[in-house]
Amino acid sequence: GISVLYIVTVSLSVIGAYYIVSASAGILSIAYSPITSVLFPYMSYRHGERGFETISQTLGQIEGIIVFAVLSVSLFAAGASRPLIELFYGRSYAADSLAFSILSAGLIFSALSTVYSTALQSMKMTHLQLFAGGISVGALLALLAALSRPLGANGVAASAVISSAAGAAISYAFIRARSDHRIRLHPRKVITPILMLLVLCVAQFFLG
Is the N or C terminus of the chain more exposed, i.e. has fewer CB atoms within 10 Å? Predict the structure, then answer.
């Protein structure tokens, strides 16, 4: 994405700014990486012990934790993107806060993509894992070609988020076809982070 942005803008300052916001958004992965790092050995053990049924049960538990944790962190960062960027990097980078918001809000797709890819791997379906990854990369390249020139850094950020969502959706479809797994989330795991975002936005509006 950064390489394409450079081709489009030929500006090191733009590239530097996008690199800063993308790296900052990447730090937010700490909200799910500790969980996903131990997921593969655990799911592989459960799958070897009792088969595909345990994969669905494990995913049902993990999805709720991941969705609540990631949305709580990512939506807060997305809503407070401008003050956060100004606080850590200065006002000169505030113009790139929208790209940071896009990447932060889309972190949930990266998290779910990682979870589902790990599930496919633990189910010994690496060919489908690779296929989903290939589709995601293909979508990223196509979106970069379409969005990076008219939208610049924001287009690159949107391309990354959409391609992650595509990878997550395809991986989920493969898992559902094999194990009959379906996402079942308690509404509060989604509603609570959204309410936190709304409160944050209202507070910022009144505080200027």
Answer: C
